[in-house]
Design goal:
about 250 residues, alpha/beta, Rossmann fold, 3-stranded antiparallel beta sheet, binds adenosine-5'-diphosphate, binds magnesium ion
Length: about 250
Amino acid sequence: MTAAVEALGISFFFGKTRALDGLTLTVPESSSFGLVGPNGAGKSTLIRIIVGLLTPMNGEARVLGRADPRQASRSIGYMPQLSALYLELSVWENIDFFARIYGVTERNRRIELIEQTTRLVGLWERRGDPVLRLSGGMRQRVSLACALVHQPRLLVLDEPTVGLDPELRANFWDHFRQMTKAGVTLLISSHTMDDAAHCDRLAFLREGKVVAEGTPGELVEATGVASATLEDAFLYFLKRGAGSNGR
Ligand SMILES: Nc1ncnc2c1ncn2[C@@H]1O[C@H](COP(=O)(O)OP(=O)(O)O)[C@@H](O)[C@H]1O
Ligand SMILES: [Mg+2]
């Protein structure tokens, strides 16, 4: 197994607030990995460290073989929890902006990638519309397109399906599965079980620590209750707290 991401004993503080507490986890390449935890568990902080926006106070994040995630930034696609779109700019202009930021400098290549990505997220017909005229679900698809356009090896999505209807959510997951089959690694955070069930592996987070890690099946099985759901497993491990493991 090659690791796309290795978080090794990461701690991070915002002033006196401890957001991450010696957190360790490994995300295997070419698979989907879910970070699941209640609000405030540290998911977004961990993600921002992995994409190189924050530097941990202790420990390290190795991403795509680099000891400094910033050296891997052109191979990373990041969709933040809060939209980073320019509302006055069109769908096409937003995606073009991010393609440039991610280093797709050659014009024809960029046009080809933007067209492909715009079609993938189902917004080809709306490509000329300013984002402010789009619905919430459409805006999320634009954000996803912005994270995808440069064909990253590691796609990091912070609660991407919040506010998406079930059909769109299913579409997203179809795309994600195609991508992981093609070798992309997907790291996705969520505070609900809807997305978690789709992931190859999960880590349950609480108070900046991993309280359990494994496949959805392993985590359910570890509760020892035959009829347990993934939601039950999540609650079980949150109550049990640190030090347990899904395997
Ligand atoms: N910019 C910030 N300034 C101060 N505290 C923060 C900031 N961002 C996050 N925190 C705190 O860090 C902890 C983890 O937050 P976060 O990583 O956003 O959790 P999650 O994404 O799981 O909801 C919480 O206690 C939160 O209040
Ligand atoms: Mg968050």
